Amino acid sequence: MSDMRIIDARSRPPIAAFLPDRTYVNLERTLRDVRARGWRPTPSMERPELDRYLAECDKAGIVRAGIPARAPNRWWGGQGNEPVLAACAERPEFFFPYAAVDPFADAAESVAGLHERGARAIVIEPGIADEPAYVDDPRINPVYEACQALGLPVLLMGGGETGPDLSFSDPRRFEQVAIRFPGLPLVNVHGGWPLAQAALGVAFRRPNVWLLPDVYFPGLPGEHDYVLAMRTYLADRFLFATGYPFCPVQATVDRYLSFGLPDEVLENVLYRNAARLFGLDPQ
Fold first, then answer.
1. Of 1, 5, 9, 202, which sits with the fewest C-beta atoms within 10 Å of its C-beta?
2. Distance CA 136, CA 115 (A)
3. Domain limits at 11?
4. Among residues 21, 44, 2, 14, which one has the least CA distance to residue 251?
5. pLDDT per position as a tens digit, 15-55
6. What is the DSSP track for 209-270?
7. Gene3D superfamilies from the xrefs (predicted)?
8. In-domain check, residue 283
9. How many domains does the chain have?
10. Lowest-confidence region among 118-122, 158-162, 198-202, 225-229
11. Within a domain: 107
12. Contacts by 53-59 with C-beta closer than 8 Å and gap 24+?
């Protein structure tokens, strides 16, 4: 593809929103995780500086990056929405924000205000709340309802280290949310991994479900299944994302290009799908 433009739908660059959390504070642990996934850390990952990160993005063809806030919690940290909104306000041509809510703290009332402040989606991570809960916990319904009313996508953590045990990644629970709120775009962050086939089955049945495997694809078991889904029914609901700094920018782009996907599918996955879902400039 020539003149390739890419939207990284989920990235955590070295900014104030993330530097105090364990991803950067315990950098050696993060880099071990990177190597365990089969990647080689880049200079910007080994010596985190925003300019290095931005240079790597520019070289790889990434023109926009979605930045997910995280509600403070005792498992992963989280600095809330303000530093993410501030970073995106400083570089609105490149960064765009996803605001986070604690679904058990009167969050439904805050959704409209966050939308007005520029949030392109709402992040909900019930499995890593101070008291972990499943994504289909009925107490979260008011937040889902508020997002559906606004047409605001939800980035719902549905795989990987999304809770104390593997049951928190169960795609059948994700499906229950999709059934209750058929008009709500639900993005399965981490793609349901390692239950990849079940998560892809849910996306086949539920047209409001999107897949964003980020740090669990490519390079890990299930890769073939995600690629096959991209080639077929998920061509317009699969989102490219690096999950930086857990995956290197250029190498991740190169792996997507190596799959031999048709140009139309690549353009959708690398750019158009995110531009459409998050209301970004389609040009």
1. 1
2. 23
3. 6-277
4. 44
5. 999 999 989 999 999 999 999 999 999 999 999 999 999 99
6. EEEE-GGGSSSSTTHHHHHHHHHTTTTTSB-----TTSS-HHHHHHHHHTT---HHHHHIII
7. Metal-dependent hydrolases
8. no
9. 1
10. 158-162
11. yes
12. 53/13, 53/14, 53/244, 53/249, 54/13, 54/94, 56/248, 56/249, 56/250, 57/8, 57/94, 57/249, 59/250
| b/e sequence 133-161, b meaning 16+ C-beta within 10 Å | bbbbbeebeebbebbbebebbbbbbbbbe
User: What is the DSSP-derived secondary structure letter of residue 131?
Assistant: S
Distance of CA 103 to the CA centre of its chain: 18
CATH of the domain at 238: 3.20.20.140
Whether the pLDDT of residue 108 is over 80: the answer is yes
DSSP 155-170: EEE-SSS-SSSGGGG-
Q: What percent of the chain has pLDDT over 70?
A: 99
Distances (CA, A) of 140 to 20, 73, 197, 281: 28, 17, 26, 31
Q: Which amino acid is at 151?
A: G
Answer whether residue 4 shows pLDDT above 60: yes
pLDDT in tens, 184-208: 999 999 999 999 999 999 999 999 9
User: What sign results for the dihedral spanned by CA atoms 281, 56, 70, 226?
Assistant: positive
* pLDDT category of residue 282 using cuts at 50, 70 and 90: low
